[in-house]
Amino acid sequence: MSSNLLAVWKSTSKSDTDVLIMPDGCRDLIMKIVEGNRPEWFVSSLYDQAKSVSIQAGSIMTGFRLKPGVYIREKALLNSIPGNLDDAHEISNRLDDFTHHKSFVEEALDCLASEVKSVTHAASELGVSQRTLQRLLLQETSRPPVYWMMLARVRRTARSILEPIPLIEIADMFGYSDQAHMSREFKRWFNMSPSDLRNKPDILEQLFNTGHD
Fold first, then answer.
1. How far apart are CA 196 and CA 30, in angstroms?
2. What is residue 29's DSSP assignment?
3. Which residues of 162-190 are buried (b: 16+ CB within 10 A; e: fewer)?
4. Which end of the chain is less crowded, N or C, counting CB atoms within 10 A of the terminal residue's CB?
5. What is the pLDDT of residues 141-188, one digit of tens each?
6. What is the mean pLDDT of residues 31-56?
7. How many CB atoms lie under 10 A from the CB of residue 37?
8. Which domains are assigned to the chain?
C-alpha cells in the first residue's frame, strides 16, 4: 500500500447524473469502467471550488485519493497503466513509483490546517519566512499557503452547520468577521450559502470524507 494514499473509494451510477464535487485539497487517480468498454484512467484536478461533473449511467468508478500536497508525475503514472488493468491492489502498490510527498510540505499543510490565525503565524511556527513558505508551497502544490489555510477552515466550518447552532455563532467560532463573511466563503468554495448546504445532506456528507482539514 502506498504511503501517499489517503483512501480508496468506489461508486456506481445507475443513471445519467450530475454530481457536485466538493473541494478537499486532494487529487485522485480514478479508474472508470462503462459496461462494454475498457477501463479509463485519469487523474482529477485540484479543485478551487465545487464542480459539477456529469457521470454516465452504468459507470463504475474506483478512486485512489492521494494525501494533500502529494506531487504526481501524472503522465508517467498514466502511461505505466496497461489499458486493461483493473486491479486496484496492484495500482495502490505502485503509486509510490510516481508520487512523492516532501516532509516539509506535509508539515506545512498540517500547520495551515490547524487553528493558526494567519499565514504569517504559520510561517513563524514552521520557522521559515512567509516568502519561503509561499515559494515552496507554490512550487510543490501549485497553490499558495492561503489556499490551504482557507480550505481547511471552510471545510471544518461546513461540518459544524449540522449542529443546532445559529449561523452567526458558527461564524464567530471559526474566526470569520461576521456571518456575511462566512457566507461569502461558502459561496466561493461550495457555490452555495451555509443555509443551502445545511439542506443538502448528500452534498454535505462529502465534507466528512478524508481530505485537507
1. 29
2. E
3. eeeeebeebbeebebeebeebbebbbebb
4. N
5. 999 999 999 999 999 999 999 888 999 999 999 999 999 999 999 999
6. 91
7. 10
8. 5-100 (no CATH), 103-208 (1.10.10.60)
